[in-house]
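Dear Dr. H.,

I hope your travels went smoothly. While you were away I took the liberty of generating a structure for the chain from your last submission, since the lab meeting agenda had it listed for discussion. I wanted you to have the full record in hand beforehand rather than looking at slides cold. The sequence, exactly as received, is reproduced here:
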Amino acid sequence: MARINNHLVIMAGGVGSRFWPMSTEENPKQFIDVLGIGKTLLQLTVDRFDTIIPRENVWVVTNQRYVDIVAKQLPEMPRNHILCEPCRRNTAPCIAYVSWRIKSTDPKANIVVSPSDHIVLNTSEFQRVITECMEFTYDSDAIVTLGMKPNRPETGYGYIQAALSSNSLRNKGIFRVDSFREKPDLATAKQYISKNNYFWNAGIFIWNVSTIVNAFRIYQPAMAKIFESLLPVYGTDREQEEINRLFPECENISVDYAIMEKAEEIFVCPADFGWSDLGTWGSLLQNTKQDLYGNACIGSDISMIESHNCMVHTAQEKKVVIQGLDGYIVAENNDTLLICKLSEEQRIKQFCGQG
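The corresponding predicted structure, in token form, is as follows:
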């Protein structure tokens, strides 16, 4: 397969308010070294595609206020591959815009779409899965989504029900999708994971550009018309002005509702490479090395005394001492300190005034 036609689209416009105070509107979590390893989540996302996609074929769709941050963190990607949404319109318009933009320069493009703020622990397995999926979509009209093998009854993710008896002739590890399921309640989630054909929806999609553009033409004709009409201006100095004018006319709708639940040729590739959407402080605790007492600490000098099961993120402090806490988040950033029970972390949006 011609690697030169492989493109990566990263969606990086979110605010990540559940990670306050580390993540703020000025500097959301995808642009932060959340794991304390010297790289931001955005940089880690691009890095894990390095063997599959050339840096000059990386695209980032984000908000106007984050363009300079993206350019600074990814200096080797072309500046005109940072696309700006003038307003939030969910994932369907974002994906439609970048798909037509890529098609205008590479009509044979094969695309993987990824969020900017997830983590993957087993990079080599991730690369194997993505490569197989891109080979599958390269010259077919299939849409592939990744399904993560669940290890707990998680209520924070949507699920994909796979038809495991109906695998593809071209790849025995890729199956037709029976249905997409909303985030379930706990009883339903337990039911799902008792079966072997339910997977977490990771929001990672693979398709070739003709397939996704045609899907928009069929299932979202009004949106397709907008981005089709802009073909003469893509890549010119009029592009942003026209996007600013027309993008707000798009319906506010996710790609799942707009395309995935309607299209015919939808497949899922079940995968297991240590994935997390890193959506909460609790998920960061689960994905960070813990001491003998279940504490995970990110910062230069943190002493935990008689404390258990805490998530501490105090990267800006020289020394931190915590005594007698059990099951707490302690997070500090830019003169703001949060001390909150892990069991109450869904209230953080209220605490920071964004709920």
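Two observations you may find useful: The longest strand covers residues 198-208. The radius of gyration is 21 Å.

With kind regards,
E. W.
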